[in-house]
């Protein structure tokens, strides 16, 4: 188990979307590896959530724009000595492959799944509380009772249209997260505030705490500043309380 827990706060809507998609990709792969019908259902739900997200706005165009911006930034490092040029060139090559792969997708990402009758039926029924009982959608209940390997094969087939996007977002978030070193910070009486340097393109705020710390941060961020309140919750059913002691933590303002 990691000795630190990292909390992240995106600064703009594009990065917020990428983080949500990363969360859904992880959810899909987590449930894919378990053979219960309940896990298969959760994997299907992740696919439908991804499909809903990529259907809003032009995710393909936004991802290409972010990749191209990172690609241009990394190109400037090629002439700098004392860096790992092999790793840098590999990363640039992977970015170029993703940009090409996204350009090669005809229409919207996952468009073919919009015509999938079973997925459409599941999407309509899941808005009803308890609406996916066996008697509501017998064809789905029948499929969930089939052999796990058959279900897994079909899940991977449904997920395949998102594979290029998965890799692209992995690269984008990797570059962002590794762009800046974490530094020690102190929240006096459980509160910290910092102005955002407008000359820097801050995209993501990361707060690292020891895994054993029984506190968590609430991060609020705008264009010009961000603030962090550290809270504790002895009972999740009750409202968290702000801590009153000084808190040492690690802070990263990721810029690319």
What's the number of domains? 2
CATH class of the largest domain: Mainly Alpha
Share of helix, binned: 40-55%
CATH topology descriptor of the largest domain: YacF-like
Tell me the strand order in the biggest sheet.
1-4-8-2
Distance between the termini: 29 Å
Poorly predicted runs: none
Shape annotation:
globular
Structural class: alpha+beta
Order of helices and strands: EHHHHHHHHEEEEEEE
CATH-defined superfamily of the largest domain: YacF-like
Number of helices: 8
Please name the CATH architecture of the largest domain: Orthogonal Bundle
Please indicate the percent range of residues in DSSP E strands (runs of 2 or more): 15-25%
Overall average residue pLDDT: 93
Count the E strands.
8
Instruction: Please give the oligomerization state of what you see.
Output: single chain
Largest sheet report: 4 strands, antiparallel
Round the Cα radius of gyration to an integer and report it. 21 Å
Task: Give keywords.
256 residues; alpha+beta; YacF-like; 8 strands; globular
Q: Would you give an account of this structure?
A:
With 256 residues, this protein is α+β, with helices and mostly antiparallel strands. The protein folds into two domains: 13-175, YacF-like; 180-255, YacF-like (Sandwich). Helix content is 46%, strand content 20%. The protein has eight helices and eight strands. The strands form two sheets. Strands 1-4-8-2 form a four-stranded antiparallel beta sheet. Strands 3, 5, 6 and 7 form a four-stranded antiparallel beta sheet that branches. A hairpin with a 3-residue loop joins strand 5 and strand 6.
